[in-house]
């Protein structure tokens, strides 16, 4: 179940990456950053949060023990 | 803006050019060499330490060495130049997608490969695939493909350093290098750059590479930030800087920009087609099959060392790329007299002329027009060299490791040599590879399409990712399936490569990498379904 949620969120990320609604948007965020860049910079930060959660909830503990010969 | 350009125009009398940037570079290279040779003293003298640092690299150094290896000079100068040419979509095209997909490759492929390789003692990709697919022949098929894909990647690093140092040093040494316009010739730049990298790789192997990469990654990240701060300051702040950028560059919708310049008129397409943007997402998959990255993964002390790399990699990409993309947008104003009006010849050339050979000039030109301080120019150039060398060292080492383990030791037998002799063989191969790369770089220096080859090398590695993914996650992936995958990727890649003439190419907007990946994955699935399954022993070995 956990893995299915991670895969679903990853696919959602891939879709959100296309941001077709932003393609023509030339507005500036905070007065200096074009919307297209601000969106994708935000995307990078959300990716950090996503991978933090993956590490927290789906860490392969048993794999590490196996690598060290503890099986 | 006009005043900046007139400052940059060469005076009629023989110019007195400050050698300060080269002195700054020399200090940087000495520092790097000192640090790397110090790390070489930590070398334990064993082949395991030479190839994979005895699995002792902790989280921070793993992050820095992996990030430094994946980010070539393109991260600093290419990102700025590509944005200058094609607009703001460059970040989404190359950076945010890499943040997501690189981290996925580290988590899904890197950690598992590390565990299997540590358990069974592999130090190269070929050893891993030979064992997983129970086939020596697969190693011989894969070996030349991997080597041929790494070589252009190596060449763009070395030739890139020529393109940085040559123009930077123009007129600095009128007596010593009169035949080269007073600039440092490529053959000397190559000796220095390859010599520095070779020195520490020779001395300390992957441990020295990890230390050097950590230092160099910190340097190029810091220098990117420095350039960003100084340029934005000169332009009157962030808001003023973006105000003078060309509006067509602030959106991703493709449009044609007519550039009326002093050297005539040219039309440049700005933006990205939807399909190209979508299918470009396959390119970052290349990190799953880079042999030099595979070797870096194996240096990790524990699986936990990967945690920081997985989490912080997208952040590190943002730290380097956001400032560089903004500089590229600002440059559309800085490098034109007035946005939309007369463009100077150099900016015209970059916009409409020879894309991949001249994009690197955007960052240095913008700095030159706005920040004329030679120390700053030297520091930022040191950052560019750091990005180049942090990839070169890993690639040299990885090729030396592959030749030693996958050809010599595999053929002759490990028992024939002592551990010290194995290290010596690896060192000899590293020296030979550096010499071959150096010679090729001088022969191909003037070839315009060498830089186009980089994207083809990335495409080849990315298309092969289906192989490693199937090897790790599908017990039913067979030896015949692996052959089918590798051969179909090679054939489809070669087809598109020949059709493109080695230049950038799409199939109706679709990047060829997406097609090659699909062909390889399909071949793996279909052939594996109908051929002999791996033995139970192999399954137990690879699927704990």
Structural class of chain B: mainly alpha
- List the quaternary state of the chains: heterodimer
Overall tally of domains of chain B: 1
The proportion of residues forming helix of chain B, as a percent range, comes to over 70%
Number of helices of chain A: 3
Determine the strand fraction of chain B and express it as a percent band: under 5%
> What fraction, in percent, of the residue positions of chain A are helical?
55-70%
Low-confidence region ranges of chain B = 1-13
Number of strands of chain B: 3
Radius of gyration of chain B: 23 Å
Task: Please tell me the overall pLDDT of chain A.
Answer: 91
Query: How would you sum up the global shape of chain B?
Result: globular
Largest sheet of chain A: 2 strands, antiparallel
CATH topology of chain B: Sodium/glucose cotransporter
Q: Tally the beta strands of chain A.
A: 2
How far is it from the N-terminal to the C-terminal residue of chain B, by CA?
Answer: 64 Å
Explain what this protein looks like in three dimensions.
The complex is a heterodimer of chains A (71) and B (544). Chain A is mostly helical and 71 residues long. Chain A has a domain at 26-57. Chain A has 3 helices and 2 strands; from the N terminus they run H-E-E-H-H. In chain A, strands 1-2 form a two-stranded antiparallel sheet. The mean pLDDT of chain A is 91. Chain B has 544 residues and is mainly alpha-helical. Chain B has a single domain (58-446), classed as Sodium/glucose cotransporter (Up-down Bundle), CATH 1.20.1730. Chain B has a 3-stranded mixed β-sheet with strand order 2-1-3. The longest helix of chain B has 49 residues, at 186-234. Chains A and B meet through helix 1, strand 2, helix 2 and helix 3 of A and helix 6, helix 10, helix 11 and helix 13 of B.
């Amino acid at each position: 179940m956990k893995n299915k949620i991670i895969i679903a969120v990853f696919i959602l990320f891939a879709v959100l990456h296309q941001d077709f609604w932003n393609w023509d948007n030339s507005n500036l965020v905070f007065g200096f950053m074009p919307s297209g860049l601000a969106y994708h910079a935000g995307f990078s930060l959300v990716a950090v949060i996503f991978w933090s959660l993956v590490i927290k909830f789906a860490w392969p503990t048993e794999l590490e023990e196996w690598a060290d010969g503890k099986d | 803006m006009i005043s900046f350009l007139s400052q940059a125009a060469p005076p009629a009398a023989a110019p007195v050019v400050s050698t300060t940037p080269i002195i700054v570079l020399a200090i940087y290279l000495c520092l790097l060499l000192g640090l790397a040779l110090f790390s070489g003293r930590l070398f334990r003298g064993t082949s395991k330490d030479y190839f994979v640092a005895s699995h002792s690299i902790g989280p921070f150094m793993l992050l820095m060495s992996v990030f430094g290896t994946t980010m070539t000079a393109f991260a600093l100068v290419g990102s700025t130049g590509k944005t200058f040419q094609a607009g703001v979509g460059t970040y989404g095209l190359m950076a945010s997608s890499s943040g997501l997909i690189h981290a996925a490759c580290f988590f899904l492929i890197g950690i598992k490969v590390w565990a299997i390789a540590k358990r069974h003692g592999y130090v190269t990709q070929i050893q891993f695939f030979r064992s997983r697919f129970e086939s020596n022949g697969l190693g011989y098929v894969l070996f030349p493909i991997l080597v041929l894909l790494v070589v252009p990647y190596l060449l763009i690093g070395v030739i890139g350093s020529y393109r940085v140092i040559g123009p930077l040093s123009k007129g600095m040494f009128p007596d010593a290098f009169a035949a080269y316009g007073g600039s440092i010739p490529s053959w000397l730049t190559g000796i220095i750059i390859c010599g520095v990298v070779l020195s520490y790789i020779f001395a300390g192997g992957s441990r020295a590479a990890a230390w050097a990469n950590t230092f160099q990654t910190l340097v190029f990240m810091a220098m990117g930030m420095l350039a960003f701060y100084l340029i934005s300051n000169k332009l009157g702040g962030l808001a003023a800087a973006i105000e003078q950028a060309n509006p067509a560059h602030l959106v991703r919708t493709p449009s044609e920009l007519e550039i009326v310049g002093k050297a005539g008129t040219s039309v440049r397409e700005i933006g990205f087609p939807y399909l190209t943007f979508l299918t470009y997402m396959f390119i970052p998959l290349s990190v799953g099959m880079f042999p030099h990255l595979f070797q870096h993964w194996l240096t990790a002390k524990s699986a936990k060392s990967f945690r920081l790399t997985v989490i912080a990699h997208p952040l590190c990409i943002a730290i380097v790329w956001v400032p560089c993309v903004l500089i590229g947008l600002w440059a559309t104003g800085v490098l034109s007299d007035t946005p939309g009006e007369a463009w100077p010849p150099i900016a015209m050339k970059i916009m409409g002329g020879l894309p991949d050979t001249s994009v690197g000039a955007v960052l240095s030109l913008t700095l030159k027009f706005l920040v004329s301080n030679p120390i700053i120019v030297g520091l930022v150039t040191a950052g560019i060299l750091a990005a180049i060398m942090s990839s070169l060292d890993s690639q040299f080492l990885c090729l030396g490791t592959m030749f030693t383990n996958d050809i010599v030791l595999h053929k002759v037998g490990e028992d024939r040599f002592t551990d010290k002799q194995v290290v010596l063989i690896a060192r000899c191969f590293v020296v030979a590879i550096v010499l071959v790369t150096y010679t090729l770089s001088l022969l191909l220096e003037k070839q315009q399409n060498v830089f186009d080859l980089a994207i083809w090398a990335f495409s080849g590695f990315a298309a092969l990712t289906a192989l490693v993914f199937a090897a790790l996650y599908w017990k039913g992936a067979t030896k015949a399936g692996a052959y089918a995958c590798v051969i179909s990727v090679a054939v489809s890649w070669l087809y598109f490569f020949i059709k493109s003439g080695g230049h950038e190419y799409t199939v109706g907007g679709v990047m060829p990498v997406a097609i090659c990946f699909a062909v390889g994955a399909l071949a793996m699935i279909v052939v594996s379904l109908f051929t002999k399954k791996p033995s139970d022993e192999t399954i137990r070995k690879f699927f704990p």
